[in-house]
Amino acid sequence: LSRRFTDDGGHGNFELAMAPDSNINRATDAKTLDVPLAPLGPLELSDDARQQSGLGLRTTGQIYARIRLSPQIALVPRLSSDATFYRKSQFNDVSGSALVGVEWQSASGRDRVTPSGGKTWRSFGGEAFARTTNFDLRWTHRLGKRAQSDMTFSYGRTTYVRNALQDGNLFSLTASVERALSARSGIGISANVQRQSARDPQFATIAGGATILRWRDMGKMTVFANATVRRLESDAPFFGGFFDRRKEWYLRGGVGATFRQVQVAGFSPVVRASYERNIANVGIFDYRRTTVDIGITRAF
């Protein structure tokens, strides 16, 4: 999609995949939780609060257009969605967003600046979960013939339908660099810091991390691998002071391939596998997760 971003007209992508998942609710597999700051003894968790596995159907899609207003100005509307459905419908996760941006491109073509704004919606288990009003500012800069950098600052005001104590502001700053190592391979590195406020400080967090991505074309097959490390801390002890303040390390690694040598109506097979480990001092957030996506994808 980054190659097509400079083209006028409409573009997008779509993916449909079967998604076996060892932990669809990102929950601990422990039967009890220790309560270090209260003399209550271990708390027994219900089955719904513990790790659940399942086979999901996942769909993702995005469409956007570049509507030329002048040689250097374009209007860029964008719609995107991400949904995963399970037999256990209480874990269905559906989100969507609508954004409109105005892109300015320098006369040299080396820089693009795009402010945008819009709305994001998310439902979980078939019920409304959160609504966010978003404002983004993105700067893309070409670094020679083989690399480009991106810097994005975003602000969001989020309302949580089920728990008003989580309502707050979300600030995020992301910087990334992508470089072509050859005509058939490349690498990308990104870093992000995020601050989320909340009415109740136990839900307010600060987080930061980095991701590295490597890809290579092998004939008509593209293979890729990525790794992420992230640190999160909350402002106050969790659950009314019965637990310590949240402190977590999130680790994720993934590999996959797209097989463009097989195409039906423009769709090609894609396979991905990933492993997540969230190391948390508050046991309810400590989990492991393995996922596999087997599906079809198309960019247009």
Report on this structure.
The chain has no helices and 16 strands. The chain is an all-beta fold. The strands form two sheets. A 14-stranded antiparallel β-barrel has the order 1-4-5-6-7-8-9-10-11-12-13-14-15-16. 0% of the residues lie in helices and 67% in strands.
Record keyword descriptors for this entry.
300 residues; mainly beta; two-stranded antiparallel ribbon; 67% strand; globular
The helix count comes to 0
- Please compute the radius of gyration using only Cα atoms: 21 Å
* Protein structure class: mainly beta
Portion in beta strands: over 45%
Question: Span between N and C termini?
Answer: 8 Å
Major sheet strand order: 1-4-5-6-7-8-9-10-11-12-13-14-15-16
The tally of beta strands, per DSSP, is 16
Largest sheet: 14 strands, antiparallel, barrel
Unreliable residue runs: 1-6
Overall mean pLDDT:
91
Which term fits the overall shape? globular
Helicity range: under 10%
SSE order = EEEEEEEEEEEEEEEE
Topology (elements, then pairings):
Elements: E1 9-21, E2 32-33, E3 43-44, E4 54-68, E5 73-85, E6 93-105, E7 111-124, E8 127-143, E9 147-160, E10 168-182, E11 185-196, E12 205-218, E13 221-237, E14 245-259, E15 268-280, E16 287-299
Antiparallel strand pairs: 1-4, 1-16, 2-3, 4-5, 5-6, 6-7, 7-8, 8-9, 9-10, 10-11, 11-12, 12-13, 13-14, 14-15, 15-16
